[in-house]
Amino acid sequence: MLGLKLxxxxxxxxxxxxxxxxxLTDHAWCEQKAASxxxxxxxxxxxxxxxVTEMLVIAREELEHLQMVHDLIKKRGLTxxxxxxDHYVNELFKFMKKDGSRKDALCDRLLFSAMxxxxxxxxxxxxSENIKDEELAAFYRDLxxxxxxxYTTFLGxxxxxxxxxxxxxxxxxxxxxxxxxxxxxxxxxxxxG
Length: 193
Description:
single chain, mainly alpha, Ferritin, 7 helices, Ferritin-like_SF, tRNA 2-(methylsulfanyl)-N(6)-isopentenyladenosine(37) hydroxylase activity, Ferritin-like, tRNA-Hydrxlase_MiaE
């Protein structure tokens, strides 16, 4: 369904298991950034009622996920660390087209968002299937389902709001680009790292 070019090596979970506090802190900040992204889409596209309505739902869900991760951190006696840079997301951001119409920019921002959600969904699936901690396995399985829904929502809106863009062609370009950079990741205990 996700169409990603490269699957995450399940051995990445061994790295994650070596530092649960780090993955949870990074995950919490990923949820915060996802909520902020949805709010930004509302801010810059307030005239698109259907998009605004759905982005508000996603922002709320992402904040709920942040709360869930924070609760898990506290329950385990861990500490929410400082925000981490997400080099993977920063590389994807550079691939976004900055020219064209407002609708063109919106569509590429939606594809950027879909790409992040697709990879996060895939990583959560790998975690849910391979982590030894049963509580975290169930936690990431539930979140994987939510991320899949967000991925399809962003992709659907890109298709809805396209003007003269071939969304399927542009999505294939996103998939190819992501496949070329993901080989640099999967070596640290972060969601995209």
